[in-house]
Write a structure and sequence with these properties.
alpha+beta, Alpha-Beta Plaits, 5-stranded antiparallel beta sheet, 4 helices, 28% helix
Amino acid sequence: MASGQTLTHLDAKGHARMVDVGDKPATRRRAVAGARIEASPATIAAIVGDTLKKGDALAVARIAGIMAAKKTADLIPLCHPLALSKVTLDIVPEDGCAALAITATAETTGPTGVEMEALTAASTAALTLYDMAKAMDRGMRITDIVLLEKSGGASGDYRRTE
């Protein structure tokens, strides 16, 4: 990136464009995102206990999240395609089995961050769980899709404090 040039999705005429990261150094980057799905205790128990009619919702949600992270550039306009070195999803019950907490971690070595990949993985896992269990509980709520932390890159590290 030339000296004095800023990273922006707008060109000199104010039109949307993909940011040129060609001159940025490749560094190790990691992002962690979260999501939450609230449901009845019976629905959470069926998901965790693998008794849904559609099958193992946790396994399907993990795979869906990983696949979505790998396809983030196809889903989010102006996102750079990244070679991800690692994507993991953890899904655990919380609040006395009234919700599932989803944590997605994405890692790469490259010139741009993986925040969008982690967020896409977490939200897609939540949507997949909703789809797998909606026959049992259409009142489920997907909430708290947030960036929890990121490391690497020129903007430094970030950790959500609330």
